[in-house]
Amino acid sequence: MAANKDKYMPGFGNHFSTEAVPGSLPVGRNSPQRPEHGLYTEQLTGTSFTAPRSHNQRTWTYRIRPSVCHTPYQSMRADNIKSSPFDEVATPPNQLRWDQLPIPTRPTDFIDGLITLAGNGDTHSWSGLAIHLYAANASMNYRYFYSADGEFLFVPQQGQLTLRTELGIMDVKPGEIAVIPRGIKFAVNLPDGESRGYVCENYGHPFQLPDLGPIGANGLANPRDFLTPVAAFEDYDGPCEVVAKFSGQLWSSTYDHSPLCVVAWHGNYVPYKYDLALFNTINAVSYDHPDPSIFTVLTSPSHPAGTANIDFAIFPPRWMVAEDTFRPPWFHRNVMSEFMGLIHGVYDGKEGGGFAPGGASIHNCMSGHGPDASTTERAMAANLAPAKIEGSLAFMFESRYILRPTKFALAAKTLQKDYFQAWAGIKKLFR
Predict the structure, then answer these.
(1) Cβ proximity of 159 and 194 under 8 Å
(2) Domain of 360, in residue numbers
(3) Cβ distance 270 to 228 under 8 Å?
(4) Mean pLDDT of the region 284-295
């Protein structure tokens, strides 16, 4: 793998320009008749051609071979990776929670260790999402992947990921996230060996920073803290497998070269990463617990305006200072459906146990949920001095569409069939 000494470029949504070999980027035109160093020009477009300039996403690449050079893709079996319409089983209105996936005992790479827990929408109409979990212990050697169905948001919980992409390399550790846009090929290396985490596959509008509205110019995630990789390439001639997720199915092709052969590129359709510790939390300072939307890092908007195909929100260390207020999330029922994961620590709404790092829960449209019985009792009796939530990092994928669990998810040994007991100890206090 050849790369520049500088590993990342900062800024969300910028137009970037980078080359691993000096002189590879053309000057004055995007597609010269004969690119330097015997490269081929290829453009990646991530939005419709006539999208407004402010929303248009595309990247020009200069590569050793164009992407068209491969044998025909063949359908491959993938029992645990599912896609729309997510109608294998009826979706229950119950609160659902799972323990973390066990780490495999046999060699398992990211593709083989990926399972689909739930989803919604339609890959063909570019709406909705799929929520996957992964547990793996082997790197992808001469094996690559891309999804034509949606962009991948990685949330590692255990073990660092090294994401080798067409446009460069990103190291992503727990506490960081990474996004690989729709169609960009990548491989996952596991420098720490065993690894586990979450993936949100976004079928809809690409993730963007949320508008800040009355918050003003500052707060939440700052654009300059997002990092995108510089150009790197693999000049390898030999057999490789490329797995494509296309129209909800997995397909496999044999290449006679590495597909990560981009020597130079410029554009704004790029992978990126973000350190969640840099998030500037906005919180209540007078009374009441704010809606989870105030913790949004990235959003995939939908129509009508103000609704979200997906919101990615986090619950990081923060001060709690509201007076005469029940400080954990109050009991609630939402139109928005919530998937929650835990990266480390104890989530402040589930201090009674059962929600472990690497675990997951789903609270669907209009299904009641909130803090467990022991957390409720403590919160109602707590001394309301300023207090800091520390040592915990939870997150949420929130969607305007109902989250539909897969058959695998509802039959999994990790499904907590007694989750409803978390609220069984709530006492009648009415006088």
Answers:
(1) yes
(2) 279-407
(3) yes
(4) 92
